[in-house]
Here is the input.
Amino acid sequence: MTGAARDGVLARNRRALHDYFVLERVEAGLQLTGTEVRSIRQGGSQIAEAYVRVEGGQAWLLGAHVRPYEQGNRQNHEPLRRRRLLLHRRQIDHLQGVARQPGHTLVPLDLHLSRNRVKCEVGVCRGKRQVDKREAIAEREARRQIDRALRRHVIGPR
Here is the structure.
């Protein structure tokens, strides 16, 4: 297993947490082919450019890249194909209603294993403005300085 797969997370969308406020999280199953599952388990997936759209009463993961499986045959999967998210009807209706609100979008946050199945954590997100990003950076820096000061005080100078 790769290092990322040890804690169950197979792919993470780090950009999403930088660009959006995550208001709500929903875990969804993914309808995958066998070669896709094998490739994702080997760390061959990328969801940084991916997004979720609700069309025709179904939720779809679009823009996710899953590298073709190296030992796959001619029935190997298409790397950028759309993949259906497996959710309950009420969850799909809820996500569709939230996504219609201005400024809200559905973003995949990570791909992870749950009971040996590949799941996608979908975030209901609202975009951050530049000011919000600067505030988050300032807050993170302040927290680091406080932690450093506490360590120096507890441990003492060296």
Observations:
- The two ends are 40 Å apart (CA to CA).
